[in-house]
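ESCALATION

Customer reports they have been waiting on this structure for their group meeting. Please prioritize. Original submission:
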Amino acid sequence: MFWLGIYARLGVYRSAKEEDVPQEALPLLSVLIAARNEAENLQHNLPAVLKQDYPSFEVLVIDDDSSDCTQIILKNFQDQYPILRVLRISPKTSPGKKSALQLGISNARGEWLVFTDADCRPASAQWLRHLAIAMRPILGKPTEIVLGYGPLWPQPGPLARWARFETVYTAMQYAGFALAGIPYMGVGRNLAWRRSLFDRVGGFAAHADLASGDDDLFVNAAAKASNTKLCFEARAFVYSRAPSTWVAWMRQKHRHLSAGVRYRPLHRALLAAAAASHVLHYALVMAVLWKGALPLALLCWGGRMLVAGVVFSLVARRLHESDLSWRFPLLDAGMALYWGIFVPGALVGHSRPVSWR
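Update from on-call: job pushed to the front of the queue and completed.
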């Protein structure tokens, strides 16, 4: 049900055709980046945001009480790019970046807000244009949320490959459910929503006590089948680097999972069912092997692997991650361990404080 009914939707999904939209019909976009001690990343990535081929946009960088040379870097960019506006929070009084984003949102000039991070880099100068194309109405109903994709740069090593796989898997889930009319999350590396929607649902108030959740919890509360669209055009991808250590990766996943426990009950039930089916497949195959029924175990494992492998290959090709396809059997087994061991352990400790990064 999940692989053929939900995940496969992204594999066959095709982006909206690029049309010659009149310049005056393109909305003013406000790009928001909250940054804390991100001088190096801003120096490297911010020009790709500032040089977007788009007629009407502004970039707001909110310096969240940085202690490095962020202010100097941003001042240099401001001298070159009038569209860059810099806001600053000092001193920092709350964990996470919601206060910084709230300041940016309250100062934004556009109705459409586009979110990314300092360590992220758009794949092309057409990023904002493709987001704007996705912002067009859905069957006469206004679009209010656009979900983008934030892949990781290909790097050598098992951690980088695993992080890329987990990123593809997550995208396969949230995009597949959105295409099935059940949007439940988005990623803050590549996300857009209307400011009026933010005001209407009460902003971040419902989860202000959490350091995380500025992206997925807001989308979880505000997204509906009638107001949410995807923008998965390759030129609109926004890339970032994988965590450099397994500890950093676990810290990142812990932060994301701490927000997941606040999802709507239906979404939690569906995600739990998907995870349980993944884990139980491997557990039952092992049980059948334990009973000595090798042909039956191979039949069960091979049947699922055929279906899941084909679907994953379609999705990976769609997301320009085809090199992961031949590693799928091993990575899929790793995902069962992730769901069965790491996630329960992380959820048990989700009440512990989570740092900004």
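Sent to customer with the following note: The first strand starts at residue 29 and ends at 35.
Escalation resolved.
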